[in-house]
Amino acid sequence: MDNNTAYFEKLLAQNGLKRTGARLQVLDILRGRDSATSQPFLEQVVGKDVDRVTLYRILRVFEEKGIIHKVLDNQGTANYAICSGGCSEHAHHDEHVHFNCDNCHRIFCLEKISIPEIKIPAGFKVGALKLVATGICEECYKVS
């Protein structure tokens, strides 16, 4: 058993989720990428092993449990990335900048850039803050 598998099994157990091949496969794919991963890409990669409904359920429960977070790209497609520590089913702490490349359409979690605190008027309750920057990523910039 490799380190990733052991880590993923522990993560699933901590969240009261059964260890299944499909769940481990999705976590392995998400962990292995340097940018957020779109649902269509996941469907393409796991399509022969996991049907679309099962994949959707896995992504939904992972998001509910604070294992992954979702960010929409410029086309409105859901993309997913593993949450950094501190997220749970009670609260996501992924208030960092997401960068959407206009050229390659990848979305990067810029975890070192936090969203500043925003003062909300009395009577309002913030559920989530999202900040998406768009432009050209480092890799695409080097090519241009």
TrEMBL record:
What Pfam families has UniProt attached to this entry?
FUR
Q: Which domain of life is it from?
A: Bacteria
Q: Provide the protein name.
A: Fur family transcriptional regulator
